[in-house]
Specification:
The chain has 166 residues and is of the alpha+beta class. Helices cover 32% and strands 11% of the residues. A 3-stranded antiparallel β-sheet has the order 1-2-3, with no helix packed on it. A hairpin with a 2-residue loop joins β2 and β3. It starts with 15 loop residues before the first helix and ends in a 12-residue tail after the last helix.
């Protein structure tokens, strides 16, 4: 299933599976965050605030502001937030076509149109107060005919995904 994180069918990229075993053997194994998955972003948030970073939550970015060819901040519902550096973790085409000014979308449009878009893995991190003893800590749930599902998900003319996800 690791190839799905890259947007590739496991039938098309079987070698991707060797990366996990290489990591486990050659890179000192797999590590788990003490305190659970959410402990890492909590620690990063605490360190960022300690260093004077202002964090905005529940504030969707309406656009990335660019002045003289340099991103200078973002517009959110509460107004303009200046920044020395702007990083976008949104889908690449969405960032170029919907968040950046139109002149940047125009420059990248031919490249974006030439790309093949596929689905990736849908991941959910759940925390519950009920134990599920029949489940392990890491589970994959696939449909009955997963080979057909992979073919439909990763074959462009059969794929029903859209380029814009937001």
């Amino acid at each position: 299933m690791q190839s799905m994180y890259l947007g590739i069918s496991p039938y098309e990229a079987p070698a991707v599976y060797t990366l996990l075993s290489y990591t486990e053997l050659a890179e000192d194994g797999l590590w788990f965050t003490m305190g659970g998955t959410y402990a890492l972003p909590r620690a990063m948030t605490a360190l960022a605030r300690e260093k004077g970073v202002e964090i905005h939550t529940n504030a969707p970015v309406q656009r990335i502001v660019v002045e003289n060819g340099k991103a200078t901040g973002v517009d959110i519902d509460g107004g303009f937030v200046p920044a020395d550096i702007v990083l976008s973790n949104a889908d690449l085409p969405y960032t170029y076509l919907d968040l950046l000014p139109a002149e940047y979308a125009g420059r990248t449009q031919p490249k974006l149109d030439s790309l093949t878009y596929t689905a990736s893995a849908f991941m959910m991190y759940l925390g519950t107060d009920v134990p599920y003893h029949h489940l392990k800590h890491h589970n994959f749930f696939l449909g009955r005919d997963y080979k057909k599902n992979f073919r439909r998900s990763f074959t462009p003319k059969l794929c029903r995904t859209t380029r814009r996800f937001m």
